[in-house]
């Protein structure tokens, strides 16, 4: 990397931003992709690129969010639409090379296409290019009906002498669910749902031969996702600074340095951006409070200590677009007057650590870190510090103590870090997602970002949706998107077709939300009103086989294990709650135990030193609020497990012990 960036060079790079028409082959080399075998796939394509002139340039990218379909490969070659393939192993990679790149034909059973990208892909096809029809039975996992409709469409194309220039492809996923057989026609970009056999001829005649639309069959799939934080994930090479800059990178910094720190804060204020780490504190206010404190040295910290079970939002952003987070950290530093920043990343994220370190080195070599950045008089540098996996170190004061080399335990506030933080100096701490969004806000403007989401909760939110879900993945949706739409329209609904029971947001600090309330729009205010929180973005989906007492017990045990033990309300209260939950789950509970649970929860919320203890009772309180009948079933002996335990105890201590471990 030999380029030294100036404002003029940045503008020139962005002006020559690559278009979708240029050939490329991208392999998702994030942690999830590599675990699924992406490194072998990348190596195969890289080896073949040295042998074949027709191979498009091969690059590594981060996760595009579709974790359930790893490894992911995206291909763009002449006369073909940009194509996303999922579940690619080396054998499938060979088919992609032979059939797609060399043969000009799409590969069956691995293509992914979504409503928000269908029109963009279709627009790139020229009139004389090969045409395509995608087909997928979305009502079940059985592939037989998909194959039958593929055959029926092929026969109709043969009858009309169109088979040579129209390919019918079985898709792995089309982003539409429970709509029967779905047919998508390119280049028209038309989607039909609930297609029946006797409608095949009409589709071929109207939409293939004449580019017409059959309105009574058309399915207008809503565009539910909007990429801001994940705008470059799955698109750019995270280890290539030039690639980031050519996609508009560091334009936010360029724009901010041309004005004052106050103007930068004003832009963030206009955007309405709030901290995405969980509390939702206004980002502009945090920066402004720190800026106003007089000090000879100030610091900024990126909190990447992602500790919620099942969460992988921050890891994916760091792995897929590290420069966006680094740029956001620099914007925070410029706004408050800091000259040094730290990335606090948990040591269990080796790839995220490696890519952030490479981003820092590359930016420093290019003149984007160090002294007099972009010739504007701003000097700043950054370092990486590793966390040892303690959940409590996600709390600001515990994180600061850890960076200082002390035991990671919280301290009383005030003073807040904005007044006395790292080494006693004013410090601004922001989450990964907040910083990645900030770099987009400064590039595109606060008004643009404020136009997304709701009035109180602007912008987008990234969620890691896991649990009893068909397609576990990262989603990024505008604030206000319904929880039900995230589960059923984006993630495909429930695994094994079981009925949904509840979802849990906010990780160990969050609460459960029952099925009847899933039409609630995502926002800080709405989730709080339901007894949950936004948190950093974990979303666990549960079905009717899940026991809410067990859910509360699981999250509470996690908090008890992770408590630093410094304050009695958390240390003692959490242990007492756990003992009561285990007593109830054994079938030994009494009605008075439920009242005791509530009293201890309130005490912990009011008296705990930090956010861990204050929010640890949330899963207990929310399950009591919506599913108290399950607690009562254990207490009254109506729960199957409780009946089993009572029978075992009546038979004697040995039988009871065996039953308890069964």
Kindly describe this structure.
α6 links the parallel β6 and β7. α12 packs parallel to α14 and α20 crosses α24. The protein has 26 helices and 19 strands. The chain folds into four domains: 190 residues, 3-Layer(aba) Sandwich (Glutaredoxin), CATH 3.40.30.10; 210 residues, NADH-ubiquinone oxidoreductase 51kDa subunit (Rossmann fold), CATH 3.40.50.11540; 93 residues, Roll (Ubiquitin-like (UB roll)); 111 residues, NADH-ubiquinone oxidoreductase 51kDa subunit, iron-sulphur binding domain (de novo design (two linked rop proteins), Up-down Bundle). With 662 residues, the protein is α/β, with parallel strands linked by helices. Keywords: 4Fe-4S, Iron, Iron-sulfur, Metal-binding. This is NADH-ubiquinone oxidoreductase-F iron-sulfur binding region domain-containing protein. Belongs to the complex I 51 kDa subunit family. InterPro entries: NADH-UbQ_OxRdtase_51kDa_CS (IPR001949), Nuo51_FMN-bd (IPR011538), Nuo51_FMN-bd_sf (IPR037225), Nuop51_4Fe4S-bd (IPR019575), Nuop51_4Fe4S-bd_sf (IPR037207), Thioredoxin-like_sf (IPR036249).
CATH level 1 class label of the largest domain:
Alpha Beta
Main-sheet strand order equals 2-1-3-4-5-7-6-8-9
Query: How far apart lie the N and C ends?
Result: 60 Å
In helices, the fraction of residues equals 40-55%
Radius of gyration: 27 Å
Biggest sheet layout? 9 strands, mixed
């Amino acid at each position: 990397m030999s380029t030294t960036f100036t404002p003029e060079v940045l503008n020139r790079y962005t002006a020559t931003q690559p278009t979708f028409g240029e050939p490329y082959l991208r392999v998702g080399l994030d942690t999830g992709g590599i675990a699924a075998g992406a490194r072998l796939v990348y190596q195969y394509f890289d080896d073949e690129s040295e042998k074949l002139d027709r191979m498009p340039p091969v690059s590594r990218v981060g996760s595009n969010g579709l974790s359930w379909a790893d490894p992911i490969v995206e291909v763009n070659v002449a006369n073909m639409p940009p194509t996303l393939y999922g579940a690619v192993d080396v054998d499938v990679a060979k088919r992609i090379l032979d059939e797609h790149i060399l043969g000009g034909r799409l590969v069956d059973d691995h293509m992914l296409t979504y409503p928000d990208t269908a029109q963009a892909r279709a627009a790139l096809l020229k009139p004389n290019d090969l045409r395509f029809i995608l087909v997928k039975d979305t009502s079940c996992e059985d592939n037989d009906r998909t194959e039958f409709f593929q055959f029926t469409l092929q026969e109709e194309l043969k009858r009309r002498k169109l088979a040579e220039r129209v390919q019918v492809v079985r898709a792995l996923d089309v982003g539409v669910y429970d709509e029967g057989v779905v047919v998508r026609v390119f280049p028209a970009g038309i989607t039909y749902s609930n297609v029946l056999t006797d409608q095949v001829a009409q589709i071929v005649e109207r939409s293939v031969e004449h580019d017409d639309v059959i309105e009574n069959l058309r399915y207008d799939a809503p565009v539910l996702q909007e990429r801001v934080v994940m705008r470059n994930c799955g698109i750019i090479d995270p280890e290539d600074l030039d690639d980031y800059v050519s996609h508009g990178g560091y334009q936010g910094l360029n724009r901010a340095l041309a004005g004052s720190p106050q103007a930068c804060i004003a832009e963030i204020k206009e955007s309405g951006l709030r901290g995405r780490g969980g509390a939702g504190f206004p980002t502009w206010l945090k920066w402004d409070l720190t800026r106003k404190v007089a000090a000879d040295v100030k610091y900024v910290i990126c909190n990447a200590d992602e500790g919620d079970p099942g969460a992988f939002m921050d890891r994916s952003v760091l792995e897929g677009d590290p420069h966006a987070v680094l740029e956001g950290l620099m914007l925070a530093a410029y706004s408050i007057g800091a000259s040094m920043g730290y990335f606090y990343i948990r040591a269990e994220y080796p790839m995220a650590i490696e890519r952030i370190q490479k981003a820092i080195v590359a930016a420093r070599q290019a003149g984007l870190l160090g002294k007099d950045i972009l010739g504007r008089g701003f000097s700043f540098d950054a370092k990486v510090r590793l966390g040892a996996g303690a959940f409590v170190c996600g709390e600001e004061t515990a994180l600061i103590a850890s960076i200082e080399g002390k035991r990671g335990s919280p301290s009383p506030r005030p003073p807040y870090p904005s007044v006395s933080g790292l080494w006693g100096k004013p410090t601004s701490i922001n989450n990964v997602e907040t910083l990645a969004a900030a770099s987009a806000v400064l590039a595109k403007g606060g008004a643009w970002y404020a136009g997304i989401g709701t009035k109180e909760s602007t912008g987008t939110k990234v969620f890691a949706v896991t649990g009893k879900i068909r397609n576990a993945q990262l989603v990024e949706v505008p604030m206000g998107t319904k929880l039900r739409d995230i589960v059923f329209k984006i993630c495909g609904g429930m695994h094994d077709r079981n009925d949904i029971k509840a979802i849990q947001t906010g990780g160990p600090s969050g609460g459960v939300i029952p099925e009847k309330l899933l039409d609630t729009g995502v926002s800080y205010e709405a989730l709080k009103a339901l007894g949950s929180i936004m948190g950093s973005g974990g979303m666990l989906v549960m079905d009717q086989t899940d026991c809410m007492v067990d859910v509360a017990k699981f999250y509470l045990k996690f908090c008890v294990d992770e408590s630093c033990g410094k304050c009695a309300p958390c240390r003692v209260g959490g242990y007492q709650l756990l003992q009561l939950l285990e007593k109830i789950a054994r079938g030994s509970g009494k009605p008075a135990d439920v009242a005791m649970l509530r009293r201890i929860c309130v005490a912990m919320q009011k008296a705990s030193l930090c956010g861990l203890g204050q929010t640890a009772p949330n899963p207990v309180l929310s399950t009591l609020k919506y599913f108290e009948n399950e607690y009562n079933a254990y207490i009254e002996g109506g729960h199957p497990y409780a009946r089993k335990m009572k029978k075992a105890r009546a038979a004697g201590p040995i039988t009871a012990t065996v039953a308890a471990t069964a």
